[in-house]
Amino acid sequence: DAMVIQNPRYQVTQFGKPVTLSCSQTLNHNVMYWYQQKSSQAPKLLFHYYDKDFNNEADTPDNFQSRRPNTSFCFLDIRSPGLGDAAMYLCATSRFRGHYTEAFFGQGTRLTVV
Amino acid sequence: GNSVTQMEGPVTLSEEAFLTINCTYTATGYPSLFWYVQYPGEGLQLLLKATKADDKGSNKGFEATYRKETTSFHLEKGSVQVSDSAVYFCARGRSNYKLTFGKGTLLTVNP
Known about the structure:
The complex is a heterodimer. By secondary structure, chain A is an all-beta fold. In chain A, 0% of the residues lie in helices and 51% in strands. In chain A, strands 2, 4, 5, 6, 9, 10 and 11 form a seven-stranded mixed sheet that branches. A four-stranded antiparallel sheet of chain A has the order 1-3-8-7, with no helix packed on it. In chain B, the strands form three sheets. In chain B, strands 2, 5, 6, 10, 11 and 12 form a six-stranded mixed sheet that branches. Chain B has strands at 3-6, 11-14, 19-21, 23-26, 33-38, 44-50, 56-59, 62-65, 75-77, 86-93, 99-101, 105-110. The interface between A and B is medium-sized, with 26 and 23 residues.
């Protein structure tokens, strides 16, 4: 089935040690998003790609970076994770053709910082 | 501004009870509206959607009607099950292809 796949489901990293989360999609959607979700909160958009164009949210810390080498893959890089970066990270995709259609989410990666 | 306000939880119901989770939005124009569900430890799943006024989205016994006059998109289900226990998010699409989420409502259904 076409879907959005995130790897790994659970990631433990050391304080300050760079970590990369990955997302792939078989939907051929042109927009890919990264969200951060902390406990009992709504997902917070970090950034998104519209095709190859990168769009950062104004309040996303510089510590967070992203790469989209091709349509199918998108990566979230956290350069120096702090304890406050422990969260669920959600990747999503959508097809935008002049009007908004629904976003499809992956299962998420639960990041623990020790 | 563009925002989504949904009923704060938690909501606790007995099995087979009627469910309503209120959601209202502010917007210019006619945004697409969505309900997403998140089960513990999982990502978000699209539950239902509506793209224009008076549309009714439905799925798995859940329904929501796009009410332009009251700018609302309330989620309802006639008879909830234990397996419906989850967090429900109301969301609206924006013209710049982003989603605006409500804060989420935790539903617990007891046997």
